Known about the structure:
- Strands 13, 14, 15, 16, 17, 18 and 21 form a seven-stranded antiparallel sheet that branches. Strands 3, 4, 5, 8, 9 and 10 form a six-stranded mixed sheet that branches.
- This protein is elongated.
- It is of the alpha+beta class.
- The chain folds into two domains: 179 residues, D-amino Acid Aminotransferase, Chain A, domain 1 (2-Layer Sandwich), CATH 3.30.470.30; 105 residues, CATH 2.40.50.140.
- The chain starts with 8 loop residues before the first strand and ends with a strand.
- The chain contains six helices and 21 strands.
- GO terms for molecular function: ATP binding; DNA ligase (ATP) activity.
- InterPro entries: ATP-dep_DNA_ligase (IPR050191), DNA_ligase_ATP-dep_C (IPR012309), DNA_ligase_ATP-dep_cent (IPR012310), NA-bd_OB-fold (IPR012340).
Amino acid sequence: MPAPMAPMLATNGPLPTGGNWAFEAKWDGVRCLAGFDARPRLWARSGTEITVRYPELADLVLPAGTVLDGEIVLLHDGVPRFELLASRMHTDRPPAALVARLPVTYMVFDAPRLAGEDLCALPYAERRARLEGLALAHPHVLVPPSFDDGAATWVASRELGLEGVMAKRLSSGYQPGVRSADWIKHKHEYTMDCVVGGWRPGARRIGALLVGSPTDGGLVYRGRVGGGISAATERHLLALLAPLERPTSAFAEQLPAEDRRGAHWVEPLVTVEVAYGEETMAGRLRFPRLRKVVEDA
């Protein structure tokens, strides 16, 4: 069965000000449309049906002809952890033990169709009221709150370790498949000083830096940093790293095979500032990019 529609998409940008906006947490998970006929059916953003991957949602009951939009997340201590969700999102018919150990939650934030009634032309504020009126009562389904103070929502989401904030124009309709400026996403970004322990070649000379954090137990691996390396920065890095080459890795642990393939190892003496979106439970940086070489480290 094909997906009932394509989800509405957000644009990147700063959080807007003024009174015509609502603000929600941005959830780090898998976008999911849920449709209901005789039973619930789930579709990914791509249109692929993913119902069999999430049996904990199989008993969700809503009026026929309803379509919900939301994000499937896997919470750990109340915070979405994408690295845990990765073990669920590609597993069809997961074993009961896996579902019990890593249960998902469906964060529902819109209702473009309700009991066969097309709500797409209604403003966000009305759709939101209709969604909240459903009073969804299911252990794996939540309707997260919406707020009118963007600055406070931003601060709270950062303190809670969430991915960022979504701003939605109160008067906006639901535009299936459209990337609209009526929805704006703004992600948190963090920075960390890391030490270069090696680099891998790529399309240019340096494809990615292999970086880590010095600890009493050695250099702890943080991941590959390929973004943000301009041609000028690449030349500067090569001049710094070439005299520091060594035959073996300085990292405390063996790096994954994909990361160490073709690596040039160096003495861990060059410090760089890395911007990133999230630190995983294993200490790896997600969405890292180079900010600058730290010259006075």
